[in-house]
Amino acid sequence: MIGQVAAALFDSPSHGLPSLDRSAQDLLDPTIPHETRAVLASQAFMRFGGWLRYGLIDSETHDPRLLDPAEAAALHRTLDRALVEGRLGEALDALAPDLRDYQILRAEMLRLMALQPIWPQIEDGPTLVAADRGPRVDQLRARLAAVGLYREDWSAGDPFDLRLETAVRRYQGRANLSPSGQLDRPTLQQLNVTPQARMAQLRVNLEQRRWQSRTPGRRNIRVNLADFSLEAWEDGRLARQFEVMVGRQVSSTPEFSEDMQYIVLNPWWGIPGGLAQTRFQSFRRNPGLAAQLGFRIYDANGSQISVYDIDWSRWGRNWPYRMSQPPGSTNPMGEVKFIFPNSYNVYIHDTTERDRFSETRRDFSAACIRVRDPLLLAQWVLSGQADWDGDRIEQVAAGSTPTVVWLDERMPVHINYWTVVGDADGEVRYLNDLYHRDDGLIDRYQQAYAAAAETGWSRISRRATVSSAGN
What we know:
- About 40% of the residues lie in helices and about 15% in strands.
- With about 475 residues, the protein is of the alpha+beta class.
- It has an 8-stranded mixed beta barrel.
- Residues about 455-470 have low confidence and may be disordered.
């Protein structure tokens, strides 16, 4: 059984975790007394198992993570069962996230570790477009060839032709960049990320999967903001997948998890004051537009007032008014809104700008998440709930009466920001860091990673070995 733990420890780097090779070697060292190695194996199981199950750093503070008493007790119970069954290695494997793409990302980590790739960089410069020539065009071809998007049959000095433009579009599409076919600034930055930086990004993304694996929920919704995608999961199986729009950079969608409690068919739109200031300045120029769109306006006391009674001189300072729009064809909430109460006032809902789902980069909202095919999502959320089949949902949504439907069972909603994803076909995509959140997280993870590597089990093992020899 000690050998099973050692074999698992050798796999630690493939999980994006600090190397435990020296600890594994100590466990296999016949010169160290068996009793000492047995103690070390239990300690290593708890340390490595804790990393796999709960993560190396805290999901909120990003500080190095310590097990709380309940987590430590749960791991001890797992260790005790594994000792009785003689399956320590299998028990450690089972502590890793059971998420669809976790093993795909691990395989990518192993590939990068084994190949230690070196791909060509592209010199800085202006945007490259069709018909351009020169060293930077050659570098672009070489870089795309390194990721398998361009064949090697080309010569230095060849112009930026249709085949290269197509390869650039494919790369941009995979990264969720606007597929212009040109080497613009965002595409250049993405292409010039070094292999070492990719490995650091991959480590963090593996860590993020560990954070979510603790309480995903039997039926749950997972949104990946960086991939503009929403997944509906049931009993560990991907049931449905939807495209979404997310917040602009100035109103970026936060990451959090909360339980969905109810949905609203034909919702009103209660407009936050800050959003009203930026979106409805047209009312100041044309007050009649408010009545035309059906808006109701309330003062600070909650009394409904006419748009003509608004003190426009207070616009942009301490705006004391609240605006609400009833259901209808111009209501940005569309036909359905999914409510999971949270401190950010962020929800999932329909949209009147459905044509914008045709775009690759979809950061258009004011922080909320707009979903394509919302009635289909509502059918899945309410599946099995009495009197709410697809026909009933569509019938109610076709009207104009706001209707609240409480869920029989609360449903976890996880809003994530993952910039590396593994697709069902095993392909790994490195996504555009839309909100520029990766760098700070990578720095904090690298600090914890380096500290754990420096003060890891190899040092403990050596101390224990010396102590045993001294006895």
